[in-house]
Amino acid sequence: MTDERAAEANGVTATYTETETERILAFERDGGDERGPGGTAAIAQNIEGYAMLKVRRTTAGDELERYYGFDMALDHAGELLGVSPHELPVPDAAEDMGM
After folding, report:
1. Do residues 40 and 27 lie in contact, with contact meaning Cβ atoms separated by under 8 Å?
2. Mean of the pLDDT values across residues 49-54?
3. 20-31: pLDDT as tens digits
């Protein structure tokens, strides 16, 4: 994917979207392997981009945890997907998430 709002690497697809109230970075990992099952995870932040990051299982799911730092939110998302946070692709449009 070449769109600045989407990225794909290591079996994980990342999509960045904005709603009226939130910026959302959603991850999807297809299938599964020896590292664990596939699945989804999402990181959300208010549209102004200054509030804590919320980690969810899905884009509309319940909040699992809040973080100040993008790195910590990525770590939790990677854990939910069974991959290292360094393996998660981050679209250009989402690189400035976090405080």
Report:
1. yes
2. 89
3. 999 999 999 987
82's torsion region: left (phi>0), alpha (psi -120 to 50) or beta?
A: left
Q: Is the dihedral of CA 58, 53, 74, 64 positive or negative?
A: negative
> d(Cα 4, Cα 1) in Å, to the nearest integer?
9
Find the radius of gyration of the CA atoms of the chain.
Answer: 12
Nearest CA-CA partner of 24 in 68, 66, 54, 63: 54
16 DSSP β-pair partners: 25
Whole-angstrom distance, CA of residue 84 vs CA of residue 35? 10
Mean pLDDT of 75-82: 94
Tell me the C-alpha distance between 25 and 4, whole Å: 12
Residue 67 and residue 73 in contact, taking contact as beta carbons nearer than 8 Å: yes
**Distance, CA of 39 to CA of 21 (rounded, Å):** 25
